[in-house]
Amino acid sequence: MNALSQLGSAMLSVLEPTSLLLMIGGVVIGIIFGSIPGLSASMAVALMLPLTFSMSSSLGMNTLVAVYIGGISGGLISAILLNMPGTASSIATTFDGYPMAKKGEAMRALGVGIVFSFLGSIFSFIILSFFAPMLADVALQFTPIENFGICFFALTMVAVLSSGNMVKGLLAGMLGLLFAMVGMAPIDGTPRFTFGSNEMMGGFNTLTTLIGIFAVADILVSAETIGKGVETIPVQKVKGFGFTMKEFVKWLPGALRAALIGTGIGILPGIGGSTSGMLAYVTAKNMSKHPETFGQGDPEGIVATETANNATIGGAMIPLLVLGIPGDGVTAMMLGGFLIHGLSAGPLLFIKNADVVYGIFAACIICALIMLIVEWNCIKLFVKVLKVPKHILMPLILVLCAVGAYATNNRIFDVQSIIVFGVIGYLFHKVKMPTTPFVLCFLIGGMTETYLRRGLMSYKSFGAFFTHPIFDVFFAIAIGVIGWFTFKEIRGNKKAG
Questions:
Q1: Average pLDDT, whole number, for the chain?
Q2: pTM tops 0.85
């Protein structure tokens, strides 16, 4: 039986009433967890695991898939409406989503995000269904050296994000790297910048840092204007999803590029949706004819990041199913689900439990459609949060930030961290320093160091890295990006002078 006929049979199976109801419930739960900062998709899947004990293996895994898809997509809701990334994957969505919401285009921003989340998911699920084994073989060719090349290339995107103000952008990026180095060093566990504090040994949590730098900083900025004008943000009504067919066709090439980035990054274990979203965003900005509109409320920014972070789902499932290697934190939880149901993720899964595998493929596609329908029907409900006056909304958001930060690791230190990073974000705003390079370097700095040290341990010399063609390509592109944007900056300064 070929892949297409097996997928068709699995589709009929997952559309049975019990399976469909469980998937709808899973998607809704995932959206709720994804939209609340601190309550991540990983946490939702972890909490759902015990509930799948009594289910059949197919029903149990399909339910976990539903929670995963809902959780990743749900992050765009708070990212757009409140400037609070519900999940790390939605960081870049705040860059243009929140400015659109402040201009009254919240419904349009949500519509764009929901549609391209769906398309990114579907793209990666089609790739997953038909090309999983082949792509898993490609992923096996990536050693720490190739992964270091990708991370190094991602770090050079600071030059793109800092275009027009290179000095402040690089300073923000270096601060991000500095904060990423706090805690125990990778590989050897040497404490760094902990100042004798046991709580700082684990470093700063990604979600708490993002909540502080975006949400708490925005609360502090908004506190200056409360009582000085309009207390609520107007919401413009839209037809359909808020964009025309002409705009949709215009955005498709960028969406395809972002979907390829998201799927490709997802296949590589340990890198994750936050990196793919950021890479897709800076690539879209770099290739745009009007890069100056990014960060000011350009829908193309949302198209790029939401397509990429949802495409990462299908990509991350490939090493999980084919190799038994989890691609990110959520798929690590799902690996636990396989073990609970007596399934062994890896090559034999396709032979011994092909019905479960293709059931997961079919469930991914159906759950993406459920996510689209649920979120579209709830757009008007979501935007009601903007009708709450600021002097009421902001304290509620601050409480939500504190609860979300504490829920991440059950540590008061994380609540204190969001205040620290909130003040840092506020100071960035006052001196007009971009936060995007800080966030990019904070997210990728730790991974870059880990892969560099692993590569050096294996080959004893950095020169040996250049014997790997994939690394050579990414390194050459990275150096080219740095050179080109440095040249543009110098030329721009000469013209201005």
A1: 81
A2: no
